[in-house]
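Limitations
The C-alpha cells in this dataset are predictions for the assembled complex, not deposited experimental models. Users should treat interface geometry with appropriate caution, especially where small molecules or nucleic acid strands are included. An illustrative entry is reproduced here so readers can see what is and is not provided.
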Amino acid sequence: GEQVEQRPPHLSVREGDSAVITCTYTDPNSYYFFWYKQEPGASLQLLMKVFSSTEINEGQGFTVLLNKKDKRLSLNLTAAHPGDSAAYFCAVSATSSGQKLVFGQGTILKVYL
Amino acid sequence: EAAVTQSPRNKVAVTGGKVTLSCNQTNNHNNMYWYRQDTGHGLRLIHYSYGAGSTEKGDIPDGYKASRPSQENFSLILELATPSQTSVYFCASGVQGGSSYEQYFGPGTRLTVL
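Predicted assembly:
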C-alpha cells in the first residue's frame, strides 16, 4: 500500500526566512494531496489541498508544489513568522488506500525572532 | 460551530478498565475515522467507517473496537485498557467523491491509562 515519507521531522527558522517541508510517496496512482497544520495542543486544520499534477497552489503565505513524476509534494513557506510555528502533516489519497488518507510523520516548525 | 466534536476531552483510566471515546459530526459525511497520535509516529488509523452500521479495521486495530450506530456518531471502545494505549485520539469525518477524501478533525481526546 501507499507509504509516505515526510522530511524533516524538525525545522527551525528565523522570522522572515523561508522553510520547505517535503513528502515523498510510493503509489503512482495517488491523486489527492493535503497539508494539515496542527498548533500546539490543538487539532489538525486543513491548510491546503492540491489535485492536479505539477500544480502550484498558493495561499496563507504558503506554496504547495506537486510533482507526480517524482512522487514528491512540498510545502514552501516564503517568509515565516512566529504564528507559523506548528506541526505540519502531509496526507495522500491513493487507489491502494481506498477511502483513507495516508499521513506523513509530521514536521515540527519553529519560527524564532 | 464545531462540526466534529469529541467526548470526553480528557480521560484517566485504570489498566484493565473499559473506556469509550465518543465522536459526533454534523457534516453529514459518510466516512468517519479514529486515529491516535503519538510522538514520532504521526497519525495512525485505528478504525474507520463508511456509514451507519459499518466498521473497518485500520492499520493498528488490535485492542480497539469501534461502533457506528448512526451517521452522526462513531465510538472507539477499549475493552481492557492498557498503559500502551495512553495517547491523544482524534476523530475525523470525511467526504467521498468530489474533492475527496479530505478529512475534518475533532479537537482530540487525551487518554491516560494508569
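Some entries come with short summary sentences. For this one: Chain A has a mean pLDDT of 88.
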